[in-house]
Structures are given as C-alpha cells and as structure tokens.
Amino acid sequence: xxxxxxxxxxxxxxxxxxxxxxxxxxxxxxxxxxxxxxxxxxxxxxxxxxxxxxxxxxxxxxxxxxxxxxxxxxxxxxxxxxxxxxxxxxxxxxxxxxxxxxxxxxxxxxxxxxxxxxxxxxxxxxxxxxxxxxxxxxxxxxxxxxxxxxxxxxxxxxxxxxxxxxxxxxxxxxxxxxxxxxxxxxxxxxxxxxxxxxxxxxxxxxxxxxxxxxxxxxxxxxxxxxxxxxxxxxxxxxxxxxxxxxxxxxxxxxxxxxxxxxxxxxxxxxxxxxxxxxxxxxxxxxxxxxxxxxxx
Length: 296
Ligand code: NAP
Description:
Rossmann fold; alpha/beta; binds NADP nicotinamide-adenine-dinucleotide phosphate
C-alpha cells in the first residue's frame, strides 16, 4: 500500500496558528513583542530567498523584525560589533546570521559571538552542548522540525530503530542526538551512517530502520529496496536537479520518492516536507526567547 504523505506545509501552518495565539497573549499580558533580527552578508540568491521567507513569516506572526543587510566585504570585526549591538538590544530576542558567510569571515567566531540566550538557530556551541545533555534551550530548527513532524504524525519513537543518513552539524548529528534523548517524542535506538560506512553495511542499516531520516545531499540516493515495509521516511534533502521551462528550479530529495512511497508507511515529500518546518521552528524558538525575557 502506498505511504501516507506527511505534509510539512500543513503541520507548519498548524504550528504557526498556535504561535500567533501565543504571540497575541504575550503582547496582551506583558506588552512584549517577540523580536527577531536576520543578518544577511552579501547577496547570495539562496540566502536572500531564505531570509526573505523568515522575515515574511515573522511579520505574519506579528513579530518586531529587522532585516539587516550587510555588504559582502564587511570585516569580521564589524560583523562581531553588529552582533554585540543586537545582543544588547532588549527589543531583540532572537539573532540569526544567515550562513554561509564570505570566506574572509570565520563562521565559528560569528556563532560564538551571539548571546546563547538569543541563539534561536541553536548553533552556538553552548546550545549544541546543552542538546547533547538533553537540556537544550533552543533546538536547531531543521532537526526540531523533523522531530515535530514525527510526533504530530503519530510515529512511535520510543524503542524504534532510527537510522540517520548523514552526520552534518546542522542536520545529521543534532537529529540523532535529539532522538536518542530519554524523553517523549524520542527515546529511539539511533544509528548514524555516512561516507565512512561501507555501502553494503549502509543498506543493511537502512533496511532495519523503523524511522529513516536522510540528510546526505545526494539526489534520489535512498532506493526502495533499502527501506523496510511500513517505515517512516523523512527526506531532508533539497537538491536542484534541473530547471523548468518557466525557469523554476526542479527539486529532488535524497530519497527516490516514487518507488519508496510504495514501500514506506509514511513519507515526506520534497518540496513541502521538512522545508516548511525549518522556518516555523525558528519562529517557535524566538517566541520562547521572548517569553524567557518576559519571565513567563
Ligand atoms: P552536508 O553538510 O553536505 O552533509 C551531508 C552528510 O551526508 C555528510 O555527513 C556526508 O558524510 C553524508 N553523505 C554524503 N554523501 C553520502 C553518501 N553517499 N552516503 C552516506 N552518507 C553521505 O549536508 P547537510 O547540510 O546535512 O544537508 C543535507 C541535505 O539536506 C542537503 O540536500 C540540504 O540541502 C538539505 N537541507 C535541507 C534543509 C531543510 O530545511 N529542508 C535544511 C538543511 C539541509 P561525510 O560526513 O562523511 O562527508
């Protein structure tokens, strides 16, 4: 039987409605409006499109939001000074520096400079460390979105064999850490596979997964015969595989969607799966930061 398609767009819409109510209540009760600044260095088209989406959602939710555009040749010192200014700005609860940064700027220095209490992207080493010990203030947005999709789709995570393909710092490692915590919506038996895993072992690991999360950045990589009958398959990949006649990018995930959907129990599409959840979780983290600042 064909898999149920998990619509990230619908789940994200539902969470945004919940957040809008929280924002309205926070304003009414405390006068505090969640504040988010997105800092964009240069004009990388993908980054411009990401920050535009983030700002649009922030406005829809009634946030105080600032889009801070900086030239591609801004010095690292000037960027750090700018971040420090937002660290001290009481109206700003969340700071996001859109990555990647130009080569002359050290990304680690920039991530360290953000006040961990305002690190709504969840990339500051303090928050990464807190995630490891199960005490995260802010979960990184894409992995948090994946967990939320699993939970809201009713997938049983406790005791599930969960395999993650990919070990990046922004997706693979954090989602593996989130799902192995002894907590509701997690408590899975977690395996991570990567380019160091021999190919035949990789397939073996994937085949026993009740939950298979794929973040490799390789289009249509995971095939139907790698997937256990009835598994929940989360496809994080976003790969441009061509251009339509109207000039729109044609996207493919890391999972060979059509054949895999005949085998899986649940599957996320690309686009419209994990993608819409990422921005929504950024908004959720910002509301949380504002509530902490308000003491509620
Ligand atoms: P990344 O930094 O390139 O990491 C990819 C990971 O996959 C690496 O750990 C790499 O292993 C592993 N890998 C690559 N080829 C593999 C193979 N053939 N077999 C097994 N493992 C392999 O990518 P990322 O940032 O994690 O992103 C992964 C995908 O998700 C990309 O398509 C990206 O566009 C997408 N993404 C989507 C969202 C969203 O919001 N929807 C957010 C972030 C990323 P090594 O460590 O050994 O090199």
